[in-house]
Specification:
alpha/beta, Rossmann fold, 4-stranded antiparallel beta sheet, 4-stranded parallel beta sheet, 46% helix, globular
């Protein structure tokens, strides 16, 4: 159960993480302030930048900074973007010309590319278009990402349940790359599995197709469903969880935590 000094996080992919102490929230703010937080006394999810006790800013400075980031023009653009996303995903799929339209829309609204969800979409689309095409796998992944973005924010009880069902370790460890071995499971908002492997190897890390006793981290993709029963977690997570030697060696981490450290 979440205590008064512990917070839940709703990340850019609508994953619920935590609970965390304020110190951990402040650390994550320094890495990426683009998320919402929830505490028992709050009526709804709140952008972390609006809370001076978590950003480390003075109350006046925090209020002014949040006001500057939430101008009417930006708010209208974000609302419009959400409408665009809902329109694209209305039929449950994304076709190439819809992805092209989303790219064009974001290019015309550069003022919000650093704000959620434009920041998430911009990074994802850049990786999709790196080879100049949007293949069927990427269309499916983009559709799933859009679905997560336009989804409803969970209430407090649902958030507690989702956080407790996460397969990742708590608290999540700090991550290193040089000389460390990684394995990946699930589907990733960052991009295709090959891109994830490339990100690790370019930083001096190693890739294991399947985790073994020498694997340091098993990264769980952000694009997951809400049902996290052991039978649905996949053989990689089951191996780490049920093998004592592997469990003492391999940390199970979220894609969010992994991308924060890239």
């Amino acid at each position: 159960m979440v205590q008064d000094n512990e917070w839940l996080i709703l990340d850019a992919f609508r994953n619920v993480l935590g609970p965390y102490a304020p110190e951990e929230i402040r650390r994550r703010v320094q890495q990426n302030p683009n998320f919402f937080v929830y505490l028992r006394d709050h009526e709804e999810w709140v952008p972390v930048e609006a809370l001076s006790e978590l950003t480390g800013l003075g109350a006046r400075d925090a209020k002014q900074g949040y006001a500057q980031a939430s101008t009417r023009e930006m708010e209208r653009a974000i609302d419009e973007l959400m409408g665009v996303c809902r329109g694209i995903i209305a039929d449950g799929k994304v076709v190439p010309h819809e992805a092209d339209y989303l790219v064009t829309w974001l290019e015309k609204h550069q003022s919000i590319v650093g704000m959620w969800p434009a920041s998430v979409l911009t990074g994802r689309l850049q990786r999709i278009y790196a080879d100049g095409i949007v293949d069927e796998w990427e269309q499916e992944e983009l559709a799933e990402l859009l679905g997560r973005i336009v989804g409803e924010k969970p209430g407090f009880k649902d958030a507690i349940r989702l956080a407790s069902e996460r397969a990742v370790d708590f608290p999540e460890p700090r991550i290193e790359f040089a000389g460390k071995a990684y394995s990946f499971t699930g589907r990733f908002a960052y991009g295709p599995r090959s891109k994830c492997v490339e990100a690790v190897e370019s930083r001096g890390g190693m890739f294991h197709q399947f985790p073994n006793l020498d694997t340091d981290y098993l990264v769980v993709g952000a694009l997951q469903g809400k049902k996290w029963e052991l039978a649905n977690k996949g053989k990689k997570i089951e191996y780490v969880v049920t093998t004592p030697e592997a469990r003492s060696k391999t940390a199970i981490i979220s894609e969010e935590n992994w991308t924060y450290h890239l």
